[in-house]
Amino acid sequence: MPQDAARAKGLEVVFSPDAIAARLDELASEIAQRNFERLLVVAVLKGSFVFAADLLRAMHRVGLEPEVDFLTLSSYRKSTTSSGQVEILRDLDLDVIDRNVLLIDDVLDSGRTLAFAKDLISARGAKSISTCVLLDKQTQRAVDLVPDFRAFACPEVFVVGYGMDVAHRYRELPYVGRIVTNAM
Ligand code: IMP
Ligand code: MG
Asked: Which of the residues 1, 120, 155, 170 has an alpha carbon 20 to 30 A from that of 111?
């Protein structure tokens, strides 16, 4: 059913709502096994907001009680290719000193966004920094970064939905899709 609805929008479902939900429960268990003390989850906005919201509730189901903050970064501006420059659009509210931080992002592509966030939080004195991504793109990284946790490996295609956009569209979709034709 989601596949038909997606086709009508010129998209193809890559990861369905059910597949995502099942994987997030596993991911939450993997995170719980690490026994992070005083865990601070930092969601990198905007793209990760749906993933972070669902993962946080999956973390709650396995008994975790993280604190949560948000960091808005920009790397992709209006186009589907990375500009190579990362900017802080909105900074954290909380102090990261001596905290175990789990950075959550939607896509790991060139690696520049997460590398920037890691450096920033490390410079502010975090005790540890781990990374968790929904999609680990099988691309040539500009920086050497392997995520500590990932929901899915993803082919080298531009994806939308489940929080991710192209020119501010498609964030509301409950699945991850790729664009196959112009919308009907
Ligand atoms: P990186 O800095 O090249 O690793 O890019 C990561 C950021 O680019 C992610 O936080 C996403 O917001 C965005 N991004 C990368 N690939 C895609 C995609 O296929 N669709 C939507 N956003 C993407
Ligand atoms: Mg992003």
From this structure: 170
